[in-house]
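[SOLVED] Need 3D model of a three-part complex

Original post:
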Amino acid sequence: MTTVALIDCNNYYVSCERAFDASLNGVPVVVASNNDGCAIARSSEAKALGVKMGDPIHLIRDRLNKHGVVVRSSNYTLYGDMQRRVVAAVEEFASEVEIYSIDETFLDLEPFADRDLVDHANAMRDQVRRWTTIPTCVGIAPTKTLAKLANAAAKKNPLFDGVADLRDPVLRSWVLDRFPAGDVWGVGRATATKLAEIGITTAGQIRDMQMKQARGLGTVVLERLVAELQGVAASAVEVIEPQRRGMAVTRSFGTPVHDIETLMGAVAQYAMRAGEKLRQHGLVAGQLSVFFHTNRFKAGAGQYQGARRMALHPMTADSLELLAAARRGVEAAWRDGYAYTKAGIMLDDLVAAELRPRTLFEGDVERRDRLMTALDEVNGRFGKFTAVPAAQGFRRDWKMRAENRSPAWTTRIDEVPTVRAD
DNA sequence: TCTGGGGTCCTAGGACCC
DNA sequence: TCTGGGGTCCTAGGACCC
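Solution:
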């Protein structure tokens, strides 16, 4: 038997915004996705007003205004930096820590299993609060899937007061019988529908499925899920970050793009950013895909999706090589006469830079490496886009909207909060 | 005017091989 | 006229996650 906990930050992006702006406390707050498109985080007050995850901001604008909901553009630099602090606050409470997402961390609590784990979890929550101000909930159970479920129960049911320890089988069954099948981690819309067709609507019923039935209805994924709900771990708390398989830089445009030069400018910026990400992770890529498409939500408008995949040999993390490949892809896939609203670059076949296969005719790789290092340093020190290739252009009409972005409170010296005594 | 941006894993089916 | 029985690898697409 293992003992797993999941600690999850409440309304994470909103809580990060509130950490540096007390005026947001007690009022409804929504954090919008890139381009100020959708609601991706909501304070409890905003949830109470009926704002749903993924609601398009422009469709609910009136309601937001009427209730005085504060809308913040997303500030991922801030959220990423705050995550580091949360993880640091949590580490001493577990033997192993797996960062699962920007606001969730799995903990191996096996060595602490004979303590009162509710007390243990509350001490951990206090520490996170003190270090970051961020409120959290904790779920404890024998497997990760059950810990996820326990966490959801801790959040939803006031009875638990923020910490649900479901190691006790009787309590666990009680919760599972009342937990909607579609809310179980790993059960999405398609699977929920299939389950409902055979009368399965609770987590308890999924747990009681025959393995063969689970396999037949879904795939091995559902089979594993049944095992996890039965308390048999199908996945462990993983400390080591797995090798990444792919990487992407994609953005919607603030205004539609009609000409290839402007599109190239956007794609050039994404290529530069993709190279930077590769180098940060010490990786090289073997394949680059570029795509661009029209607004699929717009009925009646001409629709087109352009995409090309280019092999990169030698494998590379050189932004200028990525840029050249992306340009060739755009040229090949371009079609006049459409209003493009989104483009992106995806990298595949990722390999650690030091394991990169060598080829003949590579050119002066070291010199280019030094150029890229210099580029990263300049842009790191003086801000993004200080040094850019001419192809990126100087006008960025297409750039995304972020009208209510909070400052980089914790990561840029010129934007740290100041306190005045007057 | 207007709907995010990342990721992972699994399966089916085609191409190709002996 | 006859037309096996395995393999592997790759890709596209679906489903799911935050």
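Edit: The radius of gyration of chain A is 24 Å.
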